[in-house]
Amino acid sequence: MQLYDVYGYLSANYKFNSNLNLTTRTSVTSYNLLRTEKMPYSAHPYSREGNMGDYREDRRNLFENNTEVLLNYDHKVKSFLELSGLIGGNARIFSYNSSFTSTDYLSVPEVYSFSNSLNPVQANSFNSDMRVYNAYYSLDASLGRYATISTVGRVDKSSALPKDHDSYFYPSVSLASVISDYVNLPSVISFLKLRASYTAVHGGRHFGYCWNSSFQYYHSFGGKPFWKFYV
Questions:
Q1: How many CA atoms lie within 13 A of 9 on its CB side?
Q2: What is the CA radius of gyration of the chain?
Q3: Which of 32, 85, 92, 188 measures 20 to 30 Å from 64, CA to CA?
Q4: Residues in Cβ contact with 228 at an 8 Å cutoff, skipping those fewer than 6 apart
Q5: Range list of β-strands (E), 79-213
Q6: 108 DSSP 8-state letter
């Protein structure tokens, strides 16, 4: 088996002033995997009663990159008003492909190559890609001891969804107020808080889509190759 992994992460931050700063970060994950199997004539695996050996290769490759940009803001405008929030965006690129190739018995013992297949070589492949882009924001406004208003929103655009419905917006708004902080209440009520919120969510499939989802290739020892495609 051969396995090659690559991992990487990079982050940078720039502070414009005491209230505003910018952060960007990116990460990469990838691997390339190759498994080979050499089966001699002496092997007696289940469902291969011919006992004439085989050679197989299983290849799998994955690549994923996430890149994000984030702008943060925090400022006390007046003694009764404090604002904090952020806006940002993220891009996710994902790719996966695999192939499996096998002989159908060997013509010559212990010669492990596809050209030595007694019957047509059997090959299958799979390819999947996905792109997800999103932007988001968050804002909190504190009105002294009277109330706190918060709003959050995010929009997603995914290549795994139908083109006419590939983006969604997720908004959220909330209001909280501790009434007992600024209203004289009866002594039996020591604490009274009012809270209300609204949010909207969408269920979406964010799985990769298949491109040239599968093909099969056949070639026998001394014979002519031919292909079969499945979409």
A1: 0
A2: 30
A3: 85
A4: 215, 216, 217, 218
A5: 81-106, 117-143, 147-158, 167-178, 193-199, 209-210
A6: S
**Model pLDDT for residues 135-166, shown as the tens digit of each residue:** 999 999 999 889 999 999 999 998 888 888 88
The residue with tokens 């209300």 is: 196
**Strands 147-158 and 226-230: what pairing?**
unpaired
N-to-C CA span, the chain: 30
Q: Three-class SS of residue 45?
A: coil
What DSSP element (H or E) covers 67?
Answer: strand 54-78
Residue with tokens 């943060």, as numbered in its chain = 72
pLDDT surpasses 70 at 187: yes
Provide the 10 A C-beta neighbour count for residue 192: 12
CA-based diameter of the chain, in Å?
97
Angle at 182 between CA 178 and CA 184, to 5 degrees: 110
